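Entry for adenosine monophosphate complex. Fields follow.
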Amino acid sequence: MDCVFCKIASGEIKGTVVHKTERLVVIKDINPQAPVHLLVIPKKHYSTLLDCADKELLGEMLLVAAKAAKEAGVDESGFRAVVNTNEDGGQTVFHLHMHILGKRPLNGKMG
Ligand code: AMP
Ligand code: ZN
């Protein structure tokens, strides 16, 4: 499948991996919107949040997001974890992922 995050997860193309588990990778966003901008990406392909019913995996995404935020040093100052979904959600890469943003005040509460 021609999917950039599948390719990063499989190692076919290079991403800046900061954290890895059996089922997830965490990479640095290539076009960061904040000093800390990470992406939590399941290795398995799901196009959107709507396509994933794996509770364990979805739970692990949040746990790993918290861990990666801690490792990036934004646990005390704070961060945001976001899953953009479909057009109005602003999703551009159709492989499920969670953004972690931090190290600056995130203005605009909810878009
Ligand atoms: P979204 O708009 O929520 O689908 O988020 C997609 C994110 O993936 C954007 O923030 C892009 O900057 C990021 N992105 C796209 N291609 C790459 C890549 N090759 N490596 C790292 N991040 C990427
Ligand atoms: Zn994919």
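NOTE: The CA atoms of residues 83 and 98 lie 5 Å apart.
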